[in-house]
Amino acid sequence: MNIIQSINQLNFICIAHFSSKAFQSGLHLIGSSQPIVAAPGDDVILPCRVEPEWDAVGKTVEWSRPDLRPTGPQKRVEYVFVYRFRKTDRDMMMDTYIQRTSLSQDGLRRGDVSLTIRNVSLQDQGRFRCFIPRLGIEAELLLVVGEERVQTAGLYFVFRPFCEITLDPNTANRNLFLSEGNRKVIRMMQQQFYLDNPDRFTDYKQVLSRESLTGRCYWEVEWTGRGVGVAVSYQNIRRSEGFGFNDKSWSLYCTKDGNTFFLDDIETPVPGPVSSRIGVYLDHRAGILSFYSVSGTMTLLHRVQTRFTQPLYAGICVYNGSSAELIKPQHWPPDGAKYLLSNCVQGLHQDPARI
């Protein structure tokens, strides 16, 4: 069964169930309304978080496979991942997932119970359920694993998931206003009322994504005004430093006069078209980071080949009088490929720089 057939036949959406405890507390569990699509060997994140933010440290979190029947004489449910008593409970987990799954300890403090699965295989395809017993809430997501290749202009494209990225208010500089479900950021003259948070940027008008990026993914940023910086960064960047002015972040700064790439405070002029829409392709495992001008066609602006040692986060820096928004891509893969998977984008099976 190929990916397109899988999504057509397993067209599940995120399903959330609530108990009376959840209603009383006003908390609910948010997953993904789209299937999570991956190729064999990818690392994937099954997004799931408690809204509003809720400290899940020390609370039990269970991830299971509802489409798998319980095994053994006692028909006991075997879990993909179990977190309780502030640690992973491997005794309750299926052997195949013990070394391949994890939660983010930093994320738990914000109610982010997203599950990372490394080196996925065809056997991982199916429904996954996240359950928090203390709140009595759960959410189901669909993982589709496989490759559907389309040949265009001599290249083979492999369908990869579009990263549904949102911006983290806890990291936003006080002169930034977030809207559109935390997908749009506007620079303001007056400071916004944000609670004190050690993750908040203090000097530069910038913000990080809530979601970490560890596999292959693609996203686009549309900007207006004087200019923006489109970046990826490690979580442990100093909050007084700007994107690209250290060895923990990589940033393409875009203005109407041109584009410039910064890494470790080294400036690299970037020739190519000026566009109000920038595409970013990341292959974390391969150490590839590519920036594209998106305007009718896609043009590679700059490509980085390195070794990423930590999960990355998308970042946006906003100039005075400017705004930026994370939007759904329109031109990935390049013109000629005939298929799209819902709101998923296509990563290249070959080096993206060959576009």
TrEMBL record:
All residue ranges annotated as the B30.2/SPRY domain in the record: 145-334
Domain annotation Ig-like: ranges: 41-130
SUPFAM superfamilies for this protein: Concanavalin A-like lectins/glucanases, Immunoglobulin
GO molecular function: zinc ion binding
PROSITE patterns per record: B302_SPRY, IG_LIKE
Keywords in alphabetical order: Disulfide bond, Glycoprotein, Immunoglobulin domain, Membrane, Metal-binding, Signal, Zinc, Zinc-finger
Subcellular location: Membrane
GO terms of biological process kind: regulation of leukocyte cell-cell adhesion; regulation of T cell activation
TM helices/strands, residue ranges: none
Family per similarity comment: Belongs to the immunoglobulin superfamily. BTN/MOG family.
Protein name stated in the entry: B30.2/SPRY domain-containing protein
Source organism (scientific name): Poecilia mexicana
